[in-house]
Amino acid sequence: MTRLPLWLKQRIPDAAALNTMRLVSAAAVNTVCKEARCPNSSSCFSRKQLTFMILGDTCTRNCRFCKVNKARDKFLSVDEDEPARISRIVEKLGLKYVVITSVSRDDLLDGGAGQFVKTIKAIRQLDRKIRIEVLIPDFGGEISCLKSLLDAGPDVVAHNIETVPGLYKDLRPEADYLSSLELLRNLKLLRPEIISKSSLMLGLGETQDEVGRTMKDLRQNNCDILTLGQYLAASDQQVPVKEFISLQQFLKYKDMGYSLGFKSVLSGPLVRSSYKAEEVFKEVK
């Protein structure tokens, strides 16, 4: 399935988007927008909305839907200056809402939690009023790593469930569905005031009933915000799209999410985990 519906066509970068791209590139800072080939990059960059990706551009896991580079036994380091470079970009762009994610780093004892903490602190030193959202891996299930991250005081913590449990073995062989739910549950047990968030990709072969059950699982583990978007294969190296979800079905999932008690549900073809993150945060607050 290769022909995209009209609503998935990407816009050409304008001058504002190109300026943001040049600034990020010159600072040698990674964004998941670029590394994962997000379809919203041009429109988001033009509004100075981007998601920083820390701990390099290479992941130690092998999710079959993801375009980010895979380690393949390559030695990976930690860039100690990365948090400072990100904070300088935040200052130059005048960002008031910052989103930070990372590759999975199973080679690190803390799963990369320490680099998240350093980056949060570097941004807080600029202005404590800046809102910070982090999209985190599972840290190998180590609750001490999650606690150290939460102690740094992010405003929103996202952890993506990504797909329905029946597709995990094929699409996410090194991840665990129940562990991800446990992380979301522990997050709210440790810091109930922090907003929690998760995301589902659709069009990978899941059924409507499976999506509904996954949404219920997320709410039962106190997830506050849910985003649902259309999966798109970034290249022929990723698992192909099985189905393009209709606009009507996205609206149906949105209504279902609100009926389950989510505080905010963003559902549509171009929606991604961090899409319109600041607007969603304001809606919830």
Instruction: State the separation between the terminal residues, measured CA to CA.
Output: 40 Å
The biggest sheet amounts to: 7 strands, parallel
The CATH H-level homologous superfamily: Aldolase class I
**Pairing-aware structural class of the strands and helices?**
alpha/beta
What name does the CATH topology carry? TIM Barrel
Strand order of the largest sheet: 1-4-5-6-7-8-9
**How many helices does DSSP assign?**
11
CATH architecture term: Alpha-Beta Barrel
What is the H-and-E element order? HHHEEEHEHEHEHHEHEHEH
Strand content: 5-15%
Helix content: 25-40%
Low-confidence runs of at least 5 consecutive residues? none
Shape: globular
CATH class: Alpha Beta
**Rg measurement, Å:** 18 Å
Q: Residue-averaged pLDDT, rounded?
A: 92
Quickly count the domains. Answer: 1
Number of DSSP-assigned strands: 9
Describe the structure.
This protein has 285 residues and is of the alpha/beta class. It has one domain: TIM Barrel (Alpha-Beta Barrel), CATH 3.20.20. It is 39% helix and 14% strand. It is built from eleven helices and nine strands. Helix 4 runs parallel beside helix 5 (113-126), helix 5 (113-126) packs parallel to helix 6 and helix 9 runs parallel beside helix 10. It is globular and about 45 Å long. The mean pLDDT is 92.
